[in-house]
């Protein structure tokens, strides 16, 4: 009895282990992800969003202006992944700076509470950095851009926190909707800008690097409360000192 052999083309046996390569890449990426999540466990949601955006830039190869030091434990956690050295440096820098800003924010809150400044000064932790909001009424007399003696003490207390890092600082002035028209201040634009510039000038005299500082005036156009009440107008008259992250 003869056996029949198929004379059709031979089918090449597929490599059943190819999936291991994809699986290995996936495990590496998951490892990097969980390392990052562990390292930033203490960060808030807003800062995590900024971290995610910066990681996207770092891993996609696009330009990223982060230049903070990458030394420390956070970098060592990344060294066993498939990330390049440059990517490790960027991720470690983001993590380190976020932790530093979180520490500064907590210390600011403690300082404000210890000196009973809650009624006039607030620290706000934002994705772009730390905003120190100061009511204008404690900084300036009505319709003036000259800092009051009380204001000098408040600003002097803020300076050490500003000098804990070397990133940029924005000083923003705001007014309420009550118009001003004097020889010195033809409009609220002039008043808000001159007040911001006055704060910048004082910070420079107290040792803040002038290359880090900028002054902006927003007049009445960015209210945080209603201008229909006296309390609302008081809230809108303010100066914000914003300690920015290095990627802003």
Automatic annotation (TrEMBL):
Residue ranges constituting the OmpA-like domain according to the UniProt record: 126-247
InterPro entries assigned: Bact_OuterMem_StrucFunc, MotB-like_N_dom, OmpA-like, OmpA-like_sf
This protein's record includes keyword ATP-binding: no
Entry coiled-coil feature ranges: none
Any one of the GO CC terms: plasma membrane
Transmembrane segments: 20-41
Membrane topology (UniProt): Single-pass membrane protein
Compartment annotation: Cell membrane
Keyword terms, alphabetized: Cell membrane, Membrane, Transmembrane, Transmembrane helix
A Pfam family reported for this protein in Swiss-Prot or TrEMBL: MotB_plug
Entries under PROSITE patterns matching the protein: OMPA_2
PANTHER family named in the record: LIPOPROTEIN YIAD-RELATED, STATOR ELEMENT OF FLAGELLAR MOTOR COMPLEX
Family: Belongs to the MotB family.
Protein name (record): Motility protein B
């Amino acid at each position: 009895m003869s056996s029949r052999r198929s004379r059709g083309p031979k089918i090449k046996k597929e490599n059943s282990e190819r999936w291991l390569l994809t699986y290995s890449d996936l495990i590496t990426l998951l490892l990097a992800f969980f390392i990052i999540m562990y390292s930033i466990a203490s960060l808030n949601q807003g800062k995590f969003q900024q971290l995610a955006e910066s990681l996207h830039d770092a891993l996609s190869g696009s330009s990223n202006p982060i230049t903070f030091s990458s030394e420390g434990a956070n970098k060592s956690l990344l060294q066993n992944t498939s990330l390049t050295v440059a990517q490790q440096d960027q991720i470690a820098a983001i993590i380190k700076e976020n932790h530093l800003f979180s520490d500064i924010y907590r210390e600011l809150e403690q300082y404000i509470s210890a000196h009973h400044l809650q009624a006039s000064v607030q620290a706000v932790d934002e994705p772009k950095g730390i905003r120190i909001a100061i009511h204008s009424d404690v900084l300036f007399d009505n319709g003036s851009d000259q800092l009051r003696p009380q204001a000098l003490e408040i600003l002097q207390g803020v300076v050490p926190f500003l000098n804990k890092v070397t990133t940029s600082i924005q000083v923003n002035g705001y007014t309420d909707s009550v118009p001003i028209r004097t020889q010195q201040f033809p409009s609220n634009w002039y008043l808000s800008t001159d007040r911001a510039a006055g704060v910048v000038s004082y910070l420079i005299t107290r040792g803040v690097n002038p290359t880090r500082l900028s002054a902006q005036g927003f007049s009445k156009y960015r209210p945080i409360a209603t201008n229909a009440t006296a309390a609302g107008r008081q809230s809108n008259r303010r100066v914000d000192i914003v300690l920015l992250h290095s990627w802003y």
